[in-house]
Write a structure and sequence with these properties.
16 helices; 0% strand; binds fe (ii) ion
Length: 289
């Protein structure tokens, strides 16, 4: 089967692309909690108590929600003593991010070195994208968090479908300067960005997030101010913070560095440090079970 060239601005071309990915790769259904929280938030009659009740059904998720609401990120507001209060302190979208991150973690960490590294990179990119979105005053920093969290999910699909082959590919990338994307394309016909796009479409998550995910390695599409450029920059910061993923290299140009207020070496280092600290704090939450 030949793969048609993809026109990202044509819905028909995107649809055909998704069908081709689905034909070649097995895409799992969305985790139940993700579907549930997305449909809860779309319900016009929804309220904070419904969300708190849903979270309280899962003791580990409830504990994590309370810990995050009491963390320095929200502590300046008020100390939450119940899950309902935690939902009010954090806001619905941040709670949604936490639920989806919890599901993503169990999807990625299957006691493999690649899965663990992918999870750390995904959480770090999500946090970096949220920091950048706040810096550039984007309307919805939680959208940036989700795009960062899920941008490399395609690696996991490729790895699950061919664990030995993918591990071999990673070791080849580690020993050379070759691009992981090009090697994925050659071996699996689609790179991880294309596969993640098809997966997230299958999960019916959010179109804006899907668009950023498919374009996160495309320098022409990663325009300043776009969600894709925020994810690409977050990816770069994570690489500098020692939280990158094998062979993924992106170098922002001076306009992009300038757009995020880190055109000089010292402000860039401060930003990298901020990302590293945010990761260390939030990663603790995901280690508690
Ligand atoms: Fe990537
Ligand atoms: Fe990445």
């Amino acid at each position: 089967m030949e793969t048609d060239s993809l026109d990202r601005h044509s819905p028909a071309s995107l649809r055909k692309h998704i069908d081709q990915v689905k034909e070649r790769h097995k895409l799992p259904s969305a985790p139940g909690v993700v579907t549930k929280v997305m449909s809860l938030l779309k319900d016009p009659d929804f309220n904070a108590r419904d969300l708190a009740r849903f979270i309280s059904d899962d003791p580990a998720l409830a504990a994590r929600t309370l810990s995050l609401a009491r963390s320095p990120l929200y502590a300046q507001r008020r100390r939450a003593s119940t899950v309902h209060e935690a939902v009010l302190v954090m806001g619905y979208k941040a709670v949604r991010s936490l639920v989806i991150a919890t599901a993503a973690q169990s999807f990625m960490t299957r006691k493999s070195k690649i899965g663990d590294k992918l999870w750390s990179h995904s959480l770090a990119t999500a946090l970096a994208a949220r920091i950048l979105a706040r810096r550039s005053r984007m309307d919805d920093p939680e959208m940036a968090f989700l795009a960062g969290l899920l941008h490399d999910m395609g690696h996991m699909i490729l790895c699950e479908g061919d664990p030995r082959g993918f591990a071999q590919l990673i070791s080849e990338v580690e020993q050379s300067d070759e691009s992981l994307n090009l090697k994925e394309l050659a071996l699996y016909r689609f790179d991880h960005a294309s596969v993640a796009f098809a997966l997230l479409d299958h999960w019916n998550l959010d179109e804006q997030v899907n668009e950023a995910v498919i374009a996160h390695h495309d320098s022409t599409e990663s325009r300043n101010g776009s969600l894709a450029s925020t994810v690409a920059m977050a990816d770069y910061l994570c690489g500098k913070a020692g939280l990158g993923f094998y062979g993924e290299v992106f170098h922002p140009d001076s306009d992009q560095l300038h757009a995020f207020g880190c055109a000089d070496e010292s402000s860039l280092n401060l930003l990298v440090e901020e990302v590293r600290r945010a990761f260390e704090q939030e990663n603790l939450l995901f280690r508690e079970n």
